[in-house]
Every structure is written in C-alpha cells, then in structure tokens.
Amino acid sequence: MQRFIRSWKSIEDPSEGEYGFSLDPPETPQLVLRSGSRKLFRWGPFDGIRFSGSSTLTANPLLQTMFVYNFKELYFKYEILDESVLSRIVISPTGSVQYFTWRVNISREWNLVVTFNSGPCDNYANCGNYGICYSLSSCKCLSGFTPNSPQDWGLFSYSVDVEGNMN
Is 161 helix (H, G, I), strand (E, B) or coil? Predict the structure, then answer.
C-alpha cells in the first residue's frame, strides 16, 4: 500500500489538489513530490542516515527520524522529542513541502521551520540527464559528458540533456 500526503486545491478549498508527496519506489526508497505523474522534486535515495540531497530530514534536537525497510514494510517517520512541540508537514496548494511547529502554551500560531524544496537544485532533473546542479545558475556535466546545446547552457537554460560516453 502506498500512501501520499496531498495538497489542498486552494487555501480555502481542502479538496484534493494537484500535488502528492510519497515514499517510493521500494527498490531505491526516495521521497518524491509529483504533480500528477510528473516528478517535480526528489530527496534520496535513503543512505542509512538521511535522504541524499537533504540535510533537513535528519535527526536533530527537535526530532528523531526512523526509516524502516524490510521484506514486510517500507516507511519513514519522525518523532518529536519535546512533548511541548506539535508539528506537521504540509504540501501547499502551490507545491511547497513545508514543515511547521507549534509550541504548546507558548505559540499562538504555526511557525514555518523549513520549506524543503526551496533551492534551485531541488528541482527534479534541473540539469538534464547526466548533469549536476551546483546553484541557480550553474549546472555541470558528469565527467566524459558535454552539453547537447552549449549555446543554451551558456544562457543558463539547462533543460537540454548532455551527451557523451558512458564507459
């Protein structure tokens, strides 16, 4: 059984929106945000300590993470270590994956702690096949590969793939 966190259609309309967040696939467990069937962002695969590409989903003084992966089940969860803190993960109607906390008897509102998919390199396939993202304006090819369209890459348009020898 696969479970999803779904976005709302809008802030006022809690019916199912266009974004879904899930743990998949079982072969290389990773967290994926989709719009319909299209991958927008991914964190992973899980390396035994964290999801690669994300330092925000690791254990810290506020929470303990747990990843279970065996022949019967596959899931990721976190547990809040301070009983005076409530937390939630929300997929906004615009597709942002957000983590909020509320301090019982102190806060009067939910506080946004982090938006997971806020960096340019969080975009799935931002630099095309065989490209590595370094920052908003910097993609590089893996060793042995070159851009199919150096002109486009020179204009910071990285949607065109790279080509080269995979040996």
Answer: coil
